[in-house]
Recover the amino acids of this structure.
């Protein structure tokens, strides 16, 4: 599907520039101005205009989400899910297809517009919202919360607040699944995102009464030095604040033959 606006004859010849270059430019300007989230909308708008390639463009759900859902034969009928920083909607559509009544939100208005346009027959409720100021009615409101590579795009601050706010979306008896970059050799810039999540970041997800059920670090087949966290947490049937659980299982393995596209 073509997400670009019609181009005039002068711009037809101009191929879009790589969104990674534009991401670096916009993110460094935004971060220097003390605005850690302002660049997302600018980047998606540049993608939607055809000036740069569409950022965070994935047609398929994230392979680590799909594998996790398949392994546990995830069936969401009668349950509510929310997708954090949903971007263009691939993960939200997937989780909706597994039966969940699904809300998906992003800070970027353009990303939400493109997601709605791409998935016109969708039952997903796509919403423009800021994780740092989430809707009060979402607190403890979901059976399944999905966070895929949003937090790694945020510096500290506001990273810890973002993590806490994600955990607060999980309802009693609910599950949070987190997929994120883990420390490795492939991220050589500390100035620009993504910033891999540390073990401390992962433990912070457990701060609002969640328990870590499983932590994996997974190598990507096309880039063995790239590692991803996949972390599953759950909330007690009656939620009470708890200390982070350190007795979690840590598994390291290789992801094969699945691949991840950013
Ligand atoms: C690295 S992209 C990942 C997008 C999508 N999760 C994926 O896996 O393709 C990070 C996403 O988080 C969104 N985002 C960043 N800060 C946010 C915030 N404070 N509230 C909601 N969304 C946010 C961005 O607009 C962007 O779509």
């Amino acid at each position: 599907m073509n997400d670009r606006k019609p181009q005039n004859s002068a711009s037809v010849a101009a191929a879009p520039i790589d969104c990674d270059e534009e991401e670096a430019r916009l993110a460094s300007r935004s971060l220097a101005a003390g605005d850690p989230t302002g660049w997302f909308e600018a980047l998606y708008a540049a993608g939607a205009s055809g000036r740069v390639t569409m950022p965070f463009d994935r047609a398929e759900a994230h392979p680590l989400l799909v594998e996790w859902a398949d392994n546990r034969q995830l069936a969401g009928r009668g349950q509510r899910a929310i997708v954090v920083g949903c971007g263009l909607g691939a993960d939200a559509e997937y989780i909706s297809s597994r039966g969940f009544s699904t809300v998906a939100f992003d800070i970027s208005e353009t990303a939400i517009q493109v997601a709605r346009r791409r998935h016109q027959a969708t039952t997903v409720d796509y919403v423009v919202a800021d994780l740092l100021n989430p809707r009060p009615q979402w607190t403890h409101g979901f059976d399944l919360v999905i966070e895929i590579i949003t937090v790694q795009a945020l510096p500290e601050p506001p990273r810890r607040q973002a993590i806490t706010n994600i955990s607060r979306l999980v309802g009693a008896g609910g599950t949070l699944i987190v997929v994120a970059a883990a420390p490795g050799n492939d991220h050589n810039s500390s100035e620009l995102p993504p910033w891999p999540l540390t073990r401390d970041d992962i433990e912070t997800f457990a701060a609002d009464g969640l328990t870590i059920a499983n932590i994996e670090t997974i190598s990507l087949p096309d880039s063995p030095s790239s590692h991803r966290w996949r972390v599953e947490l759950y909330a007690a049937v009656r939620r009470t604040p708890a200390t982070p659980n350190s007795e979690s299982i840590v598994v390291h393995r290789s992801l094969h033959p699945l691949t991840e596209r950013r």
Remarks:
- The pocket of S-adenosylmethionine is lined by residues 37, 40, 56, 58, 85-87, 105-108, 111, 130-132, 148-150, 153 (CB under 6 Å).
- The CA atoms of residues 88 and 115 lie 4 Å apart.
